[in-house]
């Protein structure tokens, strides 16, 4: 069976239970924290997948990584127990990412990644955010700003799979290709 299909099914089931219990907003925050923990600490995935680490330790680790202990959301604890019972704790990261995608889709949340050659001043960020909001027209946005000196100047904006590249590096590359023709 497809490894992407199983996490998506668990995530969808969690979303539906969360909707019934009114916990989806809190679960979204927990899943974001969990996914960020996995991304920040690569050893977390290998520890959770390690068969020599006890399920109690894995469950405690996932609870800690998500911040669920402080949140006190019983739905998340029930979810971890289900993963444990079905021997699926190693899929927690994939499930968290699938849940985030499902939640964003259901709530019209767009993830916007902005890369610029230098840190953007607040005034430019506000103007860019207004342009993106006007272009999309509806929904809410989660902006992620990164600095990439390789762009030389300008910026790139990625909204879901749509990309705008206004970087100097790309313009130079296009100019070079044009001159070679």
Distance between the termini: 48 Å
Average pLDDT over all residues: 92
Largest sheet: 4 strands, mixed
Q: Give the fraction of residues assigned to helices.
A: 55-70%
Describe the structure.
The chain is of the alpha+beta class. Helix content is 62%, strand content 15%. It is built from 9 helices and 4 strands, in the order H-H-H-H-H-H-H-E-H-E-E-E-H. It has helices at 5-21, 24-40, 42-49, 55-66, 68-71, 74-85, 92-106, 122-136, 168-180; strands at 109-116, 140-147, 154-159, 162-167. The protein has a 4-stranded mixed beta sheet. Helix 1 (5-21) packs across helix 7, helix 2 packs across helix 3 (42-49) and helix 4 packs antiparallel against helix 6 (74-85). The longest helix is centred in the N-terminal third of the chain and has 17 residues, at 5-21. It is elongated. The N and C termini lie far apart (48 Å).
């Amino acid at each position: 069976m497809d490894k992407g299909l199983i996490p998506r099914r668990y995530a969808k089931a969690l979303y539906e239970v969360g909707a019934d219990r009114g916990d989806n907003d809190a679960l979204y925050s927990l899943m974001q924290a969990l996914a960020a923990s996995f991304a920040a600490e690569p050893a977390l995935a290998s520890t959770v997948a390690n068969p020599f680490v006890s399920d109690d330790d894995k469950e405690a680790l996932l609870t800690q990584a998500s911040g669920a202990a402080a949140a006190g959301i019983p739905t998340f604890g029930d979810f971890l127990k289900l993963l444990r019972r079905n021997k699926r704790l190693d899929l927690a990261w994939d499930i968290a990412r699938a849940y985030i995608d499902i939640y964003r889709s259901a709530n019209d949340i767009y993830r916007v990644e902005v890369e610029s050659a230098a840190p953007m001043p607040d005034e430019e960020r506000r103007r860019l955010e207004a342009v993106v909001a006007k272009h999309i027209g509806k929904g809410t946005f989660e902006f992620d700003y990164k600095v990439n000196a390789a762009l030389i100047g300008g910026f790139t904006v990625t909204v879901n799979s749509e990309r705008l590249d206004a970087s100097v590096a790309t313009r130079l590359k296009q100019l070079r290709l044009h001159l070679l023709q």
